[in-house]
Amino acid sequence: MAKTLTTTAGAPYASNETSKTAGPRGPVLLEDYQLIEKLAHQNRERIPERVVHAKGWGAHGTFTVTHDITKYTRAKIFGEIGKKTEVLARWSTVAGESGAADTERDVRGFSLKFYTEEGNWDMVGNNTPIFFVRDAYKFPDFIRTQKRHPKTNMRSPEAMFDFWAGQPESVHQVTILMSDRGIPKSPFHQNGYGSHTFSLWNDQGERFWVKFHFRNHQGHEHFTNEEAEKIIGSTREQYQEHLYNELEAGRFPKWTLFIQVMNEEDAAKQDFNPFDLTKVWPHGDFPLIEVGELEINRNAENYFQMVENAAFSPSNVVPGIGFSPDKMLQARVWSYADAHRYRLGTHYEMLPANAAKQSEVQHYHKDGSMRFFSNDFGNPDAYYEPNQWDGPVADPSVMEPPLRIDPEAYRYPQEVTDDDFVQPRKLYAEVLSDDERKRLHQNMAGAMAPCSDSVKERWLAVLERVHPDYARGVREAAESQPAIPVTDNTPVQAAE
Ligand code: NDP
Ligand code: HEM
């Protein structure tokens, strides 16, 4: 027999279909609380979407250690070969709203929450090893160029290429975005990169700089622009369909986690800044070291509860894993929790997606809106620290080793130098095949087609600094494509 429908206070409903009215033709009585409650809840069903990475797809999985890296880190998640840790994953596009089509050309977010016995460790990365900018000051401006124009309310290629032309260090990431990897066939057909330099530290108090790479087992598969357009014409949810159906069918995607490691002393000797998010660490100099395997194997039972409510943050590290001087990472460390308090509420950490599963949460933060849980440790007197009630105390054994830093505080200018073009040049000239280069030229020419001539020329001058063939290839592709009116999605007052 079906259970009885009740109000949120547990009282049984007499009807879920008919309003309480004065006479059969109405009006409705104000005392029909059930109706008011139902409509009021509907009004509150949406929460603010993520300010970036709003469209996403998520699922549960398992991480298994396959190789010993205890000489680099004391983190218990890596404590022994065979050790398994539960994981929540979310992939996303960056710019689109929560209803955006899945197969749009964009960087993909690659977020993982590892529920370790020492607390949650989040890796909030992308499917690219680098980023468009290297100083957090530029992040909000960059994101605005990806979102809608305030007047036209449309995406603005003029703004995108204007910004990139003014920040030539972005060319490395723009090259990947416009390459085949700009539209992966599914979240499973892409790698994940921690992107920033992080740190590992071991029981002896030694610190190592590190990059995280999750290489996929499914192969890199991509859609061309034309294929993606066709798919969007028939379904906007291609990734969600693929993800959901594959997992329900028992076909579980996998990634191998590798790290690249750099000693603290070696960091000073590199001819590039190893903390610059627009640069990779060349594999030849810093080989990939295998660590373990990530398998995604279970759909969320409730998408809103586990995926929309998920709060990933680079600030979530555990003993043995730490940050680095990377300026962008430093800003991200505080920005995400701030966003979560706004998007989800003060106690977002205790929502099912975010609550630690393998470690006890014990802190002295009190009360506040939606304090729906207790952590009073069984003693209501122990609500401050220090106290005589045996309340929780800090553990100095998990103190990170000290870090020597430059004592001169200053706003150091980030000039663009020839160094900024070395790695994109290698990608363009040595990694991409002739066919991949051709598609890169066409994709980029198509993306900048609606821009003004002045923006196009400024961007082509950036490509010229990478490689003359790059600029020439994009120019020729642009000339062979049909002209698009500049005003389509360009503000009229754009500089000529
Ligand atoms: P390698 O030849 O060892 O590495 C080349 C890398 O390029 C591989 O990791 C490959 O990824 C990746 N790659 C292939 N096609 C594309 C594409 N369309 N978009 C982005 N990446 C692609 O040389 P280096 O390590 O010296 O790197 C050379 C250049 O490759 C770098 O300057 C950088 O632009 C790019 N790159 C480097 C990475 C790194 O961490 N060193 C990571 C990704 C890109 P995979 O093997 O996973 O298929
Ligand atoms: C999401 C800020 C750079 C990857 C977000 C969110 C904010 C944010 C506020 C929304 C969080 C939420 O509501 O849950 C910033 C700032 C950056 C920055 C200030 C630079 C200073 C980056 C970089 C990467 C990245 C460099 C990747 C290497 C992601 C991902 C998400 C995200 C994957 C989605 C997380 C999820 O799946 O819920 N970012 N970001 N961001 N960001 Fe960033």
Automatic annotation (TrEMBL):
GO cellular component labels: cytoplasm
EC number: 1.11.1.6
Binding site for heme: Y336
Cofactor(s) in the UniProt record: heme
Record keyword Disulfide bond present: no
Region Disordered, annotated ranges: 1-26, 476-496
Domain Catalase core as annotated: residue spans: 6-393
SUPFAM superfamilies linked to this entry: Heme-dependent catalase-like
Catalysed reactions listed for this entry: 2 H2O2 = O2 + 2 H2O
Active site, renumbered: H53, N126
Record field: compositional bias (Polar residues): 1-21, 487-496
Pfam families: Catalase, Catalase-rel
Keywords: Heme, Hydrogen peroxide, Iron, Metal-binding, Oxidoreductase, Peroxidase
GO molecular function: catalase activity; heme binding; metal ion binding
GO biological process: hydrogen peroxide catabolic process; response to hydrogen peroxide
Top-level EC class as recorded in UniProt: oxidoreductase
Recorded family membership: Belongs to the catalase family.
Alphabetical list of PANTHER family matching this protein: CATALASE
Known function: Decomposes hydrogen peroxide into water and oxygen; serves to protect cells from the toxic effects of hydrogen peroxide.
Protein name (Swiss-Prot/TrEMBL): catalase
Species this chain originates from: Roseivivax halodurans JCM 10272
Lineage of source species: Bacteria, Pseudomonadati, Pseudomonadota, Alphaproteobacteria, Rhodobacterales
